[in-house]
Each structure stands twice: as structure tokens, then as C-alpha cells.
Amino acid sequence: MNGFSTPNLTCLDVSMCDKLNSLPEPINIFIGLKGLTIQNLPNLESFANEGLPVNLRSFIVCSPGSSWTRAISEWSLQRLTCLVTLRIGGDDLLNALMNMKVPLLPNPLVSLYIYNLSDVKFLDGKWLQHLTSLENLEIASCRKLLESLPEEGLPSSLSDTMLFNLFLLQLLIPT
């Protein structure tokens, strides 16, 4: 990071860079960063090994088939007390999150978007129960997952309208 000064950087979007194999480390030094998007980086070898910037308000991460998703416990998502929007895409990433033993997502999370899953068939509601601020849950491009949404265990903070919309999404999925 020598000579890489970015005191005013508030948003970073790194997407669809086939040859990119690393990002600036440690990324958590970007304390002014409010929005971070990391998606479709097939050759990225590692990411946020020292944790994510603590002031993030929005985090979009999609990585179908990437090996760096195994290091998700190092991201320290639970420390992101300002995070209100999280978008998660890719089977490996969602499975890594659901397999964590402790609640990993920060409680202040208001909106959670799960997308671009081809193989995940089950969403463990226990993984979401501690999210008492969660108001929006959107699931898209996840045919197998939408076929088996949990009946119990979704956060009580989700509105009846949101749950009804999830039900409608299930009905609209062609079999």
C-alpha cells in the first residue's frame, strides 16, 4: 500500500476483471469506504484477509466458484455495525456463510439479497434468526433454493408483505 493514499474514497467497485488476482491489502485501512462491490473476479486469490472496512454500509459480493470464499471468517462481517445492505451471490459463498458456527452477519442489517445460486437447495432459517433489523429479503436467480424456503426461522422483522412476495416468487418459478 506504499504511496496508495485514498482518504476520500467512499465507494469501490471491482467487477468482471478476468486477469485480476489480488486487491489492495489490507483493505480494512479504507475507513471512509461506505460501499464495496466485489464480483465476477475468477482469478482473485484472496480478499480481505485482515477484515473489511468497519464503516461499510453496502457490500455486494458475488463469486461463483472462487476459492477465496473459504476465507470468509476473516472478513469479520459481524464487526460491520454500519452495514445495512448485503448482496450475496454464488453457491460457495452462501454455503460458507451458512456453515459458520457463530452468527456472522451484523444485527443492524436491513436488506439482504441472495442471488445467482445454481445448486443451493436449502436456506437454514437459524442462520438468519438473529437479524432482528432485517426488513427486506430478496432471493433471485436461485431456482432450487426458492423451491424450499424455510417455513420457520425467518426473522420476525420481515414484514408480512415481504414474506408474501417470497411466496409469490416461489409460485412464479417455472418447474
What do you see in this structure?
This is NBS resistance protein. It comes from Trifolium medium. The protein is of the alpha/beta class. The chain contains three helices and six strands. Strands 1-2-3-4-5-6 form a six-stranded parallel β-sheet. Strand 4, helix 1 and strand 5 (111-115) form a beta-alpha-beta unit. The longest helix has 13 residues, at 160-172. The chain starts with 10 loop residues before the first strand and ends with a helix. Residues 167-175 have low confidence and may be disordered.
Can you give me a brief rundown of this structure?
By secondary structure, this protein is α/β, with parallel strands linked by helices.
CATH architectural grouping: Alpha-Beta Horseshoe
Over the alpha carbons, how many angstroms does the gyration radius reach?
16 Å
Helix content: 10-25%
Strands ordered across the widest β-sheet: 1-2-3-4-5-6
The count of strands amounts to 6
CATH class term: Alpha Beta
**Integer tally of domains:** 1
Q: For this entry, what is the oligomeric state of its chains?
A: single chain
- Residue stretches low in confidence (pLDDT < 50, at least 5 long) are 167-175
Q: Sketch the topology as an H/E string, one letter per element.
A: EEEEHEEHH
User: What does the average pLDDT come to?
Assistant: 78
The tally of helices reads: 3
Sheet-strand content, in percent, reads: 15-25%
Main beta-sheet strand count, sense and barrel state: 6 strands, parallel
Class by alpha and beta content:
alpha/beta
**CATH fold annotation:** Leucine-rich repeat, LRR (right-handed beta-alpha superhelix)
Protein name: NBS resistance protein
